[in-house]
Design goal:
The chain has helices at about 5, 10-25, 30-50, 50-55, 60-80, 145-150, 175-180, 205-225, 230-240, 245-255, 265-280, 290-305, 310-330, 335-350, 360-380, 385-415, 420-445, 450-475, and strands at about 95-105, 110, 115-125, 130, 135-140, 155-160, 165, 185-190, 195-200, 415, 480. It starts with a helix and ends with a strand. Helix content is about 60%, strand content about 10%. The relative contact order is 0.08. With about 475 residues, the protein is α+β, with helices and mostly antiparallel strands. The chain folds into three domains: about 5-80; about 90-200, OB fold (Dihydrolipoamide Acetyltransferase, E2P); about 210-480, no CATH class.
């Protein structure tokens, strides 16, 4: 079925996304573009008042004006959301050493020489009264005590000079632009622990609650598995925390084309949905039980989404599942391409910079490949044997997803793993079993015998998956680089 029939949302999405891209390349002033939109609206209004015969002949022009208007709207929206154009942005002020009120955004990350803390500015103290200020900053410190107090959602006053993030000399990577897309534009070095004063938390907020939950899960998995290699991989698989992932092991997964397993994605959301959906089956016997069942399942999915860090891949999956379920409940079925288009549009409206995020591109590219290419790949062969049929369909799904992400992987990684198909045929179903086991391990580990037995099974499965990936990666010539 043609794409225009399957997903009319793409008629709005494509020109809107092109407008965002053009603003990134040519960030000109808003005024000229705004006047252009007004002129286009005026022309469209004039065409709409013409006689029917004239409008029929000018249908192509009318459609082109509509698409161009959407493109300019995307341009204007990206300009409006540009952090650098906000009146209270920290970059509008001359760098000077003063007091800043900020809010911790993420858990601190350990660097080679200390800690990096990500925070969002709230206000600056200008002699008498705090003045609102916006922007994200990186705070660097060697003090472990500061890192331990920097809990997401907690506020603090710092006394420092905030300087713009710049690129390293002779570096081809635009680090400043990368940070800007993360809403981080400035940095400061805290040499003295007294430069920062944390405020006492008045109440538990969502950020700190998620942080404490993630910390509990991470600690529980490390204690249960008793192996730092397995613990790092398990926490990456389960909640998307990759700081404990072994660098060499990460390279094995990258070089075999299975790194997507470590990213929280639709696989995780599908497993969460299936488990909660089956557990809530008794609700169908209640009045309005089906609606309640769907609502609770979607709430759990979104809670898991934020617990996993809210990355592009998991947000995409959550939006698509929500769209499909809402469509079913309203008796207006939503196709896969429609749900994918809604996910793209929703995320770009939430943050236009998502368009340039590799995770955003890879996740949506993989799903687009599956929806568009898998039926054509699997349909020519009709296999009756259930086992062979499942293997064939899994192979077609893996190939379709790989083709969908090929332009992005070629651009970002400059390599192609030839053994991605056998690697994924074993690793994907094995990782699904491991995920189910991890969901059970967290609540069951404190129980004697049961928890230890389940932890032993998880260690064995993780060993088996890692061993398979490592053996494939050791085969010479399995990766083509350029």
């Amino acid at each position: 079925m043609p794409l225009r029939v399957q997903a009319p949302v793409f008629r709005l999405l494509i020109p809107f996304a092109i407008g965002i891209f053009l603003y990134d390349v040519f960030p000109v002033g808003e005024s000229n573009v705004f006047y252009g939109v007004i002129v286009l609206f005026a022309v469209a209004a004039a065409v709409s008042r013409m006689p029917l015969a004239w409008r029929w002949n000018l249908a192509g022009l009318y459609g082109s004006l509509f698409l161009l208007t959407l493109l300019l709207v995307g341009f204007l929206y990206a300009s409006h959301r540009d952090l650098r154009k906000q009146s209270h942005w920290v970059g509008q002020h001359t760098p000077s050493k003063q007091f800043y009120l900020l809010k911790i955004r993420d858990a601190p990350k350990q660097t080679r020489s200390g800690w990096k803390i990500t925070a969002d500015l709230i206000a600056r103290n200008d002699s008498v009264n705090p003045i609102p200020i916006t922007g994200g900053v990186y705070l660097y410190t060697k003090a472990d005590s500061l890192a331990h107090q920097a809990i997401p959602g907690r506020k603090a006053w710092i006394q420092a000079t905030l300087r713009p993030i710049t690129n390293k000399p002779n570096s081809s990577f635009d680090y400043a632009r990368y940070c800007q897309r993360q809403k981080i534009t400035h940095q400061a070095y805290l040499y003295d622990p007294n430069q920062i004063q944390f405020l006492s938390p008045t109440q538990e907020n969502l950020s700190s609650l998620l942080h404490h939950t993630r910390t509990y899960i991470r600690t529980s998995l490390y204690q249960a598995l008793r192996d730092s290699l397995h613990g790092g991989l398990a926490t990456a698989l389960f909640i998307g925390w990759k700081d404990g992932l072994d660098p060499e092991l990460k390279q094995h997964y990258t070089r075999t084309g299975t790194i997507h397993i470590i990213a929280i994605s639709g696989l995780h959301i599908a497993l969460v949905f299936e488990m909660i959906w089956r557990l809530l089956f008794p609700l169908v016997y209640l009045r309005a039980g089906s609606v309640l069942r769907t609502s609770i399942t979607l709430l759990v999915i979104w809670a898991f989404c934020f617990l996993a860090g809210g990355e592009a891949s998991v947000l995409r999956a959550a939006i698509m599942f929500t769209a499909v379920q809402v469509g079913k409940g309203s008796q207006r079925p939503v196709t896969g391409m429609q749900a994918l288009g809604l996910s793209l549009l929703a995320l770009l409206i939430a943050d236009p910079d998502w368009l340039f995020d590799p995770g955003f591109q890879l996740s949506h590219g993989a799903v687009a490949g599956i929806l568009l290419l898998q039926p054509a790949l699997s349909s020519p062969w009709k296999i009756q044997n259930p086992l062979l049929k499942n293997v064939w369909e899994s192979a077609c799904l893996t190939l379709a997803a790989t083709l969908g992400t090929l332009p992005f992987t070629a651009y970002y990684f400059q390599q192609f793993p030839w053994l991605f198909l056998p690697a994924n045929l074993i690793a994907v179903p094995l990782s699904s079993v491991i995920l189910i086991g991890l969901f059970l391990l967290i609540p069951l580990y404190p129980l004697p015998f049961i928890g230890q037995a389940l932890a032993s099974v998880m260690n064995g499965l993780l060993d088996g998956m890692n061993g398979w990936i490592e053996r494939l990666d050791r085969i010479p010539g399995t990766v083509v680089s350029w």
